[in-house]
C-alpha cells in the first residue's frame, strides 16, 4: 500500500490511516419495492469523516526489492444523503454510515527515497463493496451489511521514515463502487458511488 521508505530490507508493511473523505453526487435507483415507490434521483452525499463512526482504513503490503508492492486494503468510507436529498425523496434516512466499506487487492510502485528521505508511491486495485445499507421510509427499513458489487481504488502519496521500523505517510485515495443493495421489503437500491479522500497514517515495517 504505501511506500516503505528506505527499508528495502523490510518485506511486510502494516498500515493504519484516517483522514478527510467526501463523495461525489450519484444517481440512485430504487425499484421493485413493495413499500417504497419506484424512484430515480440524484443523491448529494456527505462524508462526515470526523463524526462517529469515524472514517479509517487499514492495509497490509508485501514489498519486493524491485519497488513493486502487493497487498490487501480495507477502507471504511462513509456516505450520508444530505437534507435536500432526503426532503426531495421523502426518506427519513439514506446512508452508508457504518461504512461504504471497500475491500481491494492492490498493486503499488514506490520510488525509494527519491526525494531525500521522502519515498513517493502510486497504486491501484480491484475488489468489492460491503456497505452497511441504511434506508428508512414510513414502515420500510433496511439496516444491514451487504455485498453489493465490484469496487476499485487508486492512490498516490509519499512516506517518510521516523525510525527504521516506523513511517508516516500522506496520500490521496479515490474509490469507485457499483452498489446493488436488496431492500428488506423487496426490490433494490442501485448507485455507483465515487469517493475522494486525503489520508494520513502510520506504517510498521517487518
UniProtKB/TrEMBL annotation:
Q: Which InterPro entries match?
A: Beta-barrel_OMP (IPR027385), OMP/PagP_B-barrel (IPR011250)
Give start and end of each Outer membrane protein beta-barrel domain: 11-206
Keyword Ligase in record: no
Keyword terms of this UniProt record: Signal
Q: Which Gene3D superfamilies match?
A: 2.40.160.20
Which protein are we looking at?
Outer membrane beta-barrel protein
| Organism of origin | Pseudoroseicyclus tamaricis
Amino acid at each position: 500500500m504505501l511506500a516503505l521508505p528506505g527499508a528495502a530490507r523490510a518485506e511486510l508493511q502494516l498500515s493504519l490511516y484516517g483522514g478527510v473523505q467526501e463523495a461525489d453526487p450519484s444517481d440512485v435507483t430504487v425499484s421493485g419495492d413493495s413499500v417504497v415507490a419506484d424512484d430515480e434521483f440524484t443523491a448529494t452525499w456527505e462524508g462526515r469523516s470526523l463524526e462517529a463512526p469515524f472514517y479509517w482504513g487499514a492495509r497490509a503490503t508485501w514489498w519486493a526489492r524491485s519497488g513493486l508492492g502487493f497487498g490487501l486494503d480495507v477502507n471504511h468510507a462513509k456516505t450520508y444523503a444530505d437534507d435536500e436529498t432526503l426532503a426531495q425523496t421523502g426518506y427519513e434516512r439514506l446512508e452508508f454510515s457504518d461504512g461504504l466499506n471497500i475491500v481491494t487487492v492492490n498493486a503499488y510502485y514506490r520510488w525509494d527515497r527519491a526525494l531525500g528521505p521522502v519515498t513517493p508511491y502510486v497504486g491501484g486495485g480491484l475488489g468489492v463493496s460491503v456497505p452497511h445499507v441504511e434506508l428508512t421510509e414510513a414502515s420500510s427499513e433496511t439496516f444491514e451489511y451487504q455485498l453489493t458489487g465490484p469496487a476499485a481504488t487508486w492512490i498516490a502519496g509519499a512516506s517518510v521514515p521516523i525510525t527504521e521500523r516506523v513511517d508516516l505517510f500522506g496520500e490521496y485515495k479515490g474509490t469507485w463502487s457499483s452498489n446493488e443493495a436488496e431492500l428488506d421489503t423487496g426490490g433494490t437500491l442501485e448507485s455507483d458511488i465515487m469517493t475522494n479522500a486525503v489520508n494520513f497514517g502510520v506504517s510498521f515495517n517487518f
